[in-house]
Write a structure and sequence with these properties.
Elements (H helix, E strand, L loop, with lengths): L7 E7 L2 E6 L3 E5 L8 H23 L3 E13 L7 E13 L6
Antiparallel strand pairs: 1-2, 2-3, 4-5
Length: 103
Amino acid sequence: MAKPPIRLSLTWEGDLRFSALTDRAPLVIDGRSQAGPSPVEALGLGLAGCMAVDVVDILVKGRHEVTSLVTDLVAERAPEPPSRYTAVTLHFRAGTTAPAHPI
């Protein structure tokens, strides 16, 4: 079954600040990183969040009891605009118990 489309809206509030709204949660995106994450930081949050969800899902499917997960992202950026990501490192620290083994 296909996933429903993602719907969101950005409304310019002035300067480089936008209010972002999804079907479930509001967020402020700020190009100056003062009132909320910048667009590039939000992109990193999205990447780290997607990967963290996958890691938890894989651990749970492997019958590990996940007690904690911390995901750290470090991204290198191009020195000149557009200051895109040129390299990304993700580091996961998971607290788990051993998988249950059938008898």
